[in-house]
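chain below, 133 aa
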Amino acid sequence: MWKEFKAFAVKGNVIDLAIGVIIGGAFSKIVSSLVNDIIMPIVGVLLGGVNLTSLQLTYGKATVLYGQFIQTILDFFIVAFSIFMVIKLITKFKRKKEEEIVEEKAPSIDAKEELLMEIRDLLKKDHVRQEEN
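prediction:
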């Protein structure tokens, strides 16, 4: 059983996942600080000095912290948007690199080959027209 666990834990996907979770946790702290320390004070000023995290509704002995809930939803959207932008940026760089590789692999066509291809295409068109008549 130990050998199986060791083989599982050493696989690349598990290690990649662990690294992703660790980086995601650190990234979440950065985004939470961005939201709490920069964005929410600005939102509070725009809303007339209202602090969203202090918004609450009391019903009997129960207190509903809906401001905290709004804060958490805002955190989620900012984290999701940030991750989307990072992935989009990484994908853009990967795509550029793949295009460069494809361009390098594409064979160059000289003038003679291009002329032969044009003649071939014209002959195909002429052959199709003769079959239609």
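The longest strand covers residues 57-59. The first helix runs from residue 2 to 10.
thats it, cya
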